[in-house]
């Protein structure tokens, strides 16, 4: 007859529950995995499978009851670490969306907004197009697999422990949050520069010929120039997208190191 003690049951539950919490936190916040179009049972099933695969390689867990106050604090900490790592990659796509929004407003397409199922909000047509391109690039270079590899490495750099995580992790996420504006501006800079030159040319043309209806020709010219520049720039977006993905994954690793109190190399 097989008998199990409460200590053994708690050990088995903790060995699956705590890693699963960090994994589900990343799945909930990371792009692609956290999309609203993916059913919740599929996300939970993926998290359980990953936790069962990673559990044997995870370092020794703290001897704490999962239902005690110490166990619940560990649970919350694991959730925060997973959310932070997934949110770091979400910022990359937020930068792409900002580039599309800036381009749309400059082109005069600010009114052309649609429902975005990924963010469950409204975004411009150019923003959605760039987001779809970034999503396809994200999958094409297997960045989603590299992100899961970084998650598995985080159990070594920041093992499940009863000690509270360092305050460096939130500062790392906040520092990376400023990348939305710089990366978004860099991605949209060719379009903004071309439209700025177009608007200056239209202004000079209006001063030279006051009888010209600038409102009649300004919008189609700006729209045509914007679409032309987007078509010219699109083949060259692979390199900045790849750089952003690599940088985001490295920051996700840095968040795990900062949570453990280790300085960035």
Multimer state:
single chain
How would you describe the shape?
A: elongated
Q: What share of residues is helical?
A: over 70%
What structural class results from the helix and strand content?
A: mainly alpha
- Average of the residue pLDDT scores: 82
The beta-strand count equals 2
Give a written overview of the molecule.
The structure is a single chain. This protein is mostly helical. The chain has helices at residues 6-29, 40-54, 69-107, 125-140, 143-157, 168-177, 179-208, 214-233, 238-259; strands at 113-116, 121-124. It has one domain (6-259). It has a two-stranded antiparallel sheet. Strand 1 and strand 2 form a beta hairpin. Helix 3 (69-107) packs parallel to helix 7 and helix 3 runs antiparallel to helix 9 (238-259). The longest helix has 39 residues, at 69-107.
List keywords for this structure.
265 residues; transmembrane; mainly alpha; 9 helices
Element layout with pairings:
Layout: H1 6-29, H2 40-54, H3 69-107, E1 113-116, E2 121-124, H4 125-140, H5 143-157, H6 168-177, H7 179-208, H8 214-233, H9 238-259
Antiparallel strand pairs: 1-2
Helix pairs in contact: 1-2, 1-3, 3-4, 3-6, 3-7, 3-9, 5-9, 6-9, 7-8
Brief sketch in words of this structure:
72% of the residues lie in helices and 3% in strands.
């Amino acid at each position: 007859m097989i008998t199990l003690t409460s200590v053994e049951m708690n050990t088995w539950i903790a060995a699956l529950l705590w890693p699963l919490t960090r994994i589900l936190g990343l799945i909930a916040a990371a792009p692609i995995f956290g999309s609203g179009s993916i059913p919740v049972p599929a996300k939970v099933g993926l998290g359980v499978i990953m936790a069962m695969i990673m559990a044997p390689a995870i370092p020794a867990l703290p001897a704490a009851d999962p239902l005690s106050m110490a166990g619940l604090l560990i649970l919350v900490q694991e959730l925060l670490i997973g959310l932070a790592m997934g949110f770091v990659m979400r910022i990359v796509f937020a930068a792409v969306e900002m580039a599309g929004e800036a381009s749309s407003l400059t082109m005069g397409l600010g009114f052309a907004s649609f429902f975005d199922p990924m963010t469950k909000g409204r975004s411009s047509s150019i923003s959605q197009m760039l987001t779809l391109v970034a999503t396809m690039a994200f999958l094409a270079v297997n960045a989603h697999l590299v992100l899961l590899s970084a998650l598995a490495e985080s159990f070594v750099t920041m093992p499940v422990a009863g000690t509270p995580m360092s305050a460096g992790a939130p500062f790392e996420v906040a520092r990376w949050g400023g990348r939305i504006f710089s990366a978004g501006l860099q991605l949209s800079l060719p379009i903004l520069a071309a439209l700025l030159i177009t608007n200056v040319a239209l202004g000079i043309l209006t001063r030279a010929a006051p009888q010209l209806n600038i409102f009649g020709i300004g919008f189609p010219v700006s729209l045509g120039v914007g679409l032309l520049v987007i078509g010219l720039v699109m083949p060259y977006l692979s390199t900045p997208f790849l750089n952003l993905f690599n940088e985001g994954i490295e920051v996700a690793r840095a968040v795990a190191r900062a949570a453990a109190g280790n300085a960035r190399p």
